[in-house]
Amino acid sequence: MIEITSPSLSAAARKSILLAYAKEKPHDALSYARQFASDPDPVLRLAAAGAFGIIGGREGYSSLVDLLHHEQDREVQKRAIIELGSTRDSRALFALVNIYRHWNTSNQISVLSAIHILSDPRSSSFLEDLLTNPQALDALGKNLTERAFYDVQRNPEFSYTFLGKEEDRMKEYDQESHLVLASPEDLLELPQSDHPFSYVITQDHQFVTAPFHQVEHISLAKGRDVAAAGEFNCGSSSVVYINNRSYGFYPAPTSVQSVNKAFHKIGIPPLKQFTETFPKEGYFTPAFLSQFPFSPSEPQ
Q1: Among 63, 102, 146, 191, whose Cα sits 20 to 30 Å from the Cα of 44?
Q2: Residue 139 in 3-state DSSP?
C-alpha cells in the first residue's frame, strides 16, 4: 500500500485505493484514513470519511467525530455525517440528533439518511416526533423520515455499544466470565434479595449475570457490545422483574426481543415487555444528549 501516499497519483486515484483497502483490510487502512482526514485536499478528506464508515465500529465512529469537529467543507461534512450511520456504533444516534438540532439545517437531510442507515430502534420516537410536526420537514425530509421510521419498526434487535470511556471498556475486555445461565435452575445460585441483579444479553444471546450486586454491565459484557442489558430479580427458578436500565449501554425497550431469545435457550417463558423501561424521560432530552458530541454544552 505504499502507492496510496505517492504524490504521483491523483487525489481521485488515492481515494479509490483507500476505499478498496478499507474493505479488504480495515484495521490496516485506518492509519491511512486518518492521514487523509487532515489533508488539505477535500477529495482526500471525503475518502477518509468513506473509509471510516467502512471500517465502522468504535474506531470508525471516533474518527468521524474527530473529523466533523474540524471540517469546514460542506460536502465533506455531509459525507461524514452519513457515514456515522454506516459505523453501526450505537453512540452515533445521539451525535446525529445533536447535529440535527444544533447545526446548519442544510445538514438535516444527511442526518436523516444516516439515521436510516443506522436503524437504531431508539430513533423511533425522534422520527415520530418529526412526522407529527409537518413544518419540520420538506418533501425529501418527510420521505426519508417515513422510510427510516418504517424500517426501524422492523428492526427491534440491535447491537449496543458501551457509552463510557475506552480505557474503562478495555479494562474489562475478555476478562474472566461471570455466571452464564444455562437453565432455570441456575437462578437458584443467586441469593434471595430485594435488590435487582445486573444482566447483559450477549450477541449470541447468552444471559450473563453475577451472584452479587453493583456489577457494571461492561464487566458482564467483557468489554464487548451487547444485545440487551438491565436489571432483574428472581424468585426460585423464575424471573419476577426485569428492566432495560443500563447507564453503560442504554438499550431500547425493544431489546426485550433479545432477552426472549436468551430465555428460549435457557427454558424460561418469554416476556411480552419489560416490567419497567428506562430512561423515563426518553433518550432525547437536552440533559441526556449533553453527554454526546455536538451538543451545545460540549467543550470546544
Answers
A1: 102
A2: helix
Instruction: Give CA separation, 227 vs 124, 200, 203, 253, 257, in Å.
Output: 18, 8, 5, 11, 9
Which whole-number Å values give the CA distances from 123 to 1, 44, 71, 127, 287, in the listed order? 39, 31, 26, 6, 17
Which pLDDT belongs to residue 16?
A: 95
Give the residue with greater pLDDT, 237 vs 268.
Answer: 268
148 in Cβ contact with 115 (< 8 Å):
yes
- pLDDT band of residue 123 (cuts 50, 70, 90) is very high
Q: Which residue has the higher pLDDT, 174 or 95?
A: 95
User: Does 279 sit behind a cis peptide bond, omega within 30 degrees of 0 on the bond before it?
Assistant: yes
| CATH tag, 7-156 | 1.25.10.10
List Cβ neighbours of 54 (8 Å cut-off, separation of 6 or more). 19, 22, 23, 26, 29, 60, 86
Dump pLDDT digits (tens) for 152-169: 999 899 999 999 999 999
| Alpha carbon distance, N-terminus to C-terminus of the chain | 36
User: What percentage of the chain has pLDDT greater than the value 90?
Assistant: 86
The answer for residues whose C-beta is within 8 angstroms of residue 45's C-beta and 6 or more apart is 36, 37, 38, 39, 67, 71, 73, 76
**Side-chain half-sphere CA neighbours of 296 within 13 A:** 5
